[in-house]
Amino acid sequence: MAMAAVLAGVGVGLAAPPALADTVAVQYTCTGPGAPSGVQSLSIAVTAPASVEQGGTADLTVDVITTLTAPIDIPAGSVSGELKLDLGGAATGSATATGFTNSDTIPSGTPVTVTGGKASARLDNAGATTFSPGDATVHVFGVTVACSVSGTAPVAATTQVGGS
After folding, report:
1. What whole-number distance in Å separates Cα of residue 128 and Cα of residue 115?
2. pTM for this prediction
3. Are 46 and 83 in contact, with CB atoms under 8 Å apart?
């Protein structure tokens, strides 16, 4: 079903100055109409600034690629989603990346990719702040699928916060 293919494709990205960020694999369990059964793996790349001043804001971007393939052609702009980013290290709390979509048509039989997610986090404490993917929500063809991290998500990006 188209929903199952889309649900694995939520992603988030960051703003300049970018730090080098690896793509991390995160395991999700999803519920809702058309959700795939079992645990699904998403490849998530979070780009964050290498550093910000204490009290400054880290602007983040995220890209998500799923291991699911689209069962049908999915028209451009028909998928949207949100992805929570959990803050760790010198910070606590979370930021939610929004604005994800498929900017191009996703042809049947190809992996579902959703890009354009953006989030901001105010960083008040000096030290290294980490960003780990959290729960995600995907909307496609009027249906919403909720995905929860299965296990522990790895750190996807780190920003050094300078003291004042």
Report:
1. 26
2. 0.84
3. no
